[in-house]
Structures are given as C-alpha cells and as structure tokens.
Amino acid sequence: MSSPNPFYLIGKPIADKYGRFKGRIVALEFDHGGEVKNIVYENGGVILSKPIDSVVIKSDGVIIYSKEMINAQKLFDRLSFLKLQVDALGKLKELSGVNNVYHELYENVSREFENISKEFHSVRKNLEKRKVSILRRKNRLEELHYWLGVAREANAIDNKVYLDSYETIDREIVKLNNELEELEYAIYTLDSKLSEIESLLKSYSAEETSSIYVNEGGDESNVEA
Questions:
Q1: pLDDT digits 0-9 by tens, 60-75
Q2: Integer CA distances (angstroms), 6 to 23, 66, 178, 218, in order
Q3: pLDDT in tens, 158-207
Q4: How far apart are CA 141 and CA 169, in angstroms?
Q5: Measuring CA to CA, which residue among 13, 201, 216 is closest to residue 93?
Q6: Burial 17-40 (b: 16+ CB within 10 A, else e)
Q7: At residue 65, what are phi and psi to the nearest 5 degrees?
Q8: In whole angstroms, how far apart are CA 20 and each of 13, 141, 168, 207, 216?
Q9: Of the candidates 72, 96, 150, 158, which lies 20 to 30 Å from 35 by C-alpha distance?
C-alpha cells in the first residue's frame, strides 16, 4: 500500500465493484515488512478479511475486485506500455533506419513481449475460469426464480413475499451479468492488444529482413542508417 498512514482506512466502508455492500473496515493486518497484508471488515456481525491484492483503495473507502480482474488490468497496463514502445520503435526506424540501436531495442521489446505472452495465457485462463463460475451462479439463481414460481402457484407463499424474493434474486442476477460483461470485455481487450503488438513486431521483423540487400560483389550486408 502506497499510503504512509494506512490506518485512515479503519472505519471506511468496503464494497464490491458491483454494488454489494460488504461492511466497514475494523482493522488491518500487516506482514513482517510493515506492508498491509489483509483488510479486516465487519459484515452483519461477522468478521471477514480480504487480501490487499484483491482490493482497490479509493479516497472514500475500499472497492473489492476479483483477483482475476486486477491481474487482467495490470497485464493490460503492461501491454499498453509495450505498445507505446513498439510505436516508438517504428518511428525510430523511420528516422534512423535499421542500425545497431534499432536491433538492440527490437530485441528488448521482443523479449518483453515473450514474457507478457507467457503471463497472458495464465491470466486469460483464470478469467475464463471465473466466467464459468459466474455463469454457474447465475444459472443457480435463475433456478431459484423457477422454484419461487412453483411456491406461488402452490399458494405456499404470499404474493408480496414472492415479489420481494424475486426482485432480490433478480438484482443479484443483474450484478452477475455486469461482471460477465466485464470479464468478456477484459478477455477481448487483452486478446486484441496482444494480437496488435504481435502483428507490428512481425511486420518490423519482416522489414528488417527486407533491408538486407546483395551488393555488387555478391555479399549480403545490412543497410546502415
């Protein structure tokens, strides 16, 4: 945590990104290095905790995100920064041609792309797993709608009770749908950004090859800036 005084969080509200109120922060847990490890909060009389890497600190409280979405955002930020480097590499080539500096920078960017690609597969797999989990929860809630309908048809519950229960479940389904949309968008944006960078790097590599020519003596040499 970047704040020099993390204790200001105690007493602040904590909720998840989709509007489910979770409670208020009552304590913080620290590791041996003095960094916040867990946020401890009270919810309906029960003391719970969340690891610091599953939350985002806001000025007015703490928002709970899934680890999968936090990791996806971190990876997207890395991809976005790498894209800036790739764009700068292309401009450098236009100005200076394919020289030693270009080759060195191209290799550095390519290595970073390989590292990100390895992490990408793990992050994407976890996003897909969470998507499956959310779909299962959604399907279960939709089945509850069915059983509520059965209870009402059997005159086993009052109509107002039925409506209140139905709307409560429906609100949760809406939140799950919102999370599903964000998961799908995260997967799409990561796929698109990775493919875009890969395509640019391949085109630059092809251009490097095309910059090699055969001189009058029949020897190959690189075009120098």
A1: 889 998 889 999 999 9
A2: 18, 21, 31, 69
A3: 999 999 999 999 999 999 999 999 999 999 999 999 999 999 998 887 55
A4: 7
A5: 201
A6: bbeeebbebeebeeeeeeebebbb
A7: -115, 160
A8: 11, 16, 12, 52, 74
A9: 72
